[in-house]
Sequence to fold (495 residues):
Amino acid sequence: MSEREVPLGALHRRLGARMVPFAGYQMPLQYSSIRDEHQAVRERAGLFDVSHMGEVRVGGPGAQAYLQRLVTNDVGKLAVGQALYTVMCREDGGIVDDLLVYRDPDDYMCVVNAARHDDDLEWMGRQLPPSGVELEDQSDQTCLLALQGPLSLQILAPLADGADLGAISYYHHQPGRVLGVPVRLSRTGYTGEDGFELYCDREAAEGLFQGILDHGRSHGLLPAGLGARDTLRLEAGFRLYGQDITLEREPISAGLGWVVKLDKGEFVGREALVRAKAEPQLSFIGLRLLGRGIPRPHQAILAAGQPIGEVTSGSYGFSVGAGIAMGYVRPGSAPKGSEVEVALRADPAERGRAQVVALPFYRRPT
Amino acid sequence: MSDPSLVRFTKTHEWVRPEGAGEAVIGISDHAQAQLGDVIFLELPSAGAHLTAGQRFGAVESVKAASDLYSPVSGEVVEVNQAAVSAPEVVNQDAQGAGWLLRVRLEGEIPTGLLDPQAYDAFAESDSH
Fold:
């Protein structure tokens, strides 16, 4: 199967990106090095093109009631100008996807994972009431740029047409213009740093990316790819769909109980999640390697020589200075602070000692 | 110093360069570092260790994957590039220069079956497709 080109593909190549297939698209893995791009985001800023993400507008008089039934978090509490992180589940609690829900004055916008886009649309369509709710897939005409890092505000402010960007709180958004381009200015991200996500029309995306990059260079802004995005999100403890959360996992075991509002009323999967809360099947934990070695997905986690679970995400935490991993274990088998082993290689002698630690691995200085 | 045209490569993407006086330097190819991406850890033998041509002598671990290293020559390790061990990013920056890994005292000649730079480039090109 051949991958689709993102609208900014030619620009990424001109910037020297190494392109890799990801979720059906050719995406930039890295421009310089993952280490440099990771550090740039932690210390200054990085600019990501994440236009592969899907955008679905939910409108009509029944939109709120529909979303309230579709997702696990409480859309009823979402004010205009706010954003909400949530998951949507099947009846059995299995996670269909994790998503952001933006509330606009007249409707909502859901932002979903590229790899889940088609399945999500199908699922969301099946949950529609006979009338009163419309779904509109805007993924193809929408691009998403993420400016992330402590200097994001400083870099973006002079380009934002006089908008008071500092007044946009975390997980809030407002319409605006950047370099004259109409955008949704959203104070969100997937890196653990301050930053903004900018949604714009696909025709304007290349000029916007290039313009922010040109202006930000003097602040040490770098274009950043999926490689750094993965190490940054892992340090921040953010789950990745397809690895940490899947149709086979429910959000309580995944440590996402905070986005499951069992008291908000009926929603798809509620009964299964009530049961899961009463008796969790798995625990989601963080691991920090005590020696050298980098944990990888699917490696076994062992305690006292016996398998207790499996790594779902693992890499090197550049800001942590160690190999780090997240994964599932049997409840109670790996309390925080305890020491376990990760089967780094097939050879039993190649096990890495690791400490069970709280998530996230990295928290930005406040 | 050394003549770059004398560098020889393995099909497992290591290189060896004769340095005169029966010594040679070993590293991984620029193609290999590009494929591996950011190198995080190097697992290398200590000075005094014996290498056998074609045998595993260590590993390089990148953000992407862990990969075994195979020696292009037989001999004794006389020096480990400590700069590369403590800051492995030099392997990404200059794999066939400052990012060298080991200096060895050769046992016999450099094996004749290794690839010259031109042949290796052609091999690496076909290998990455």
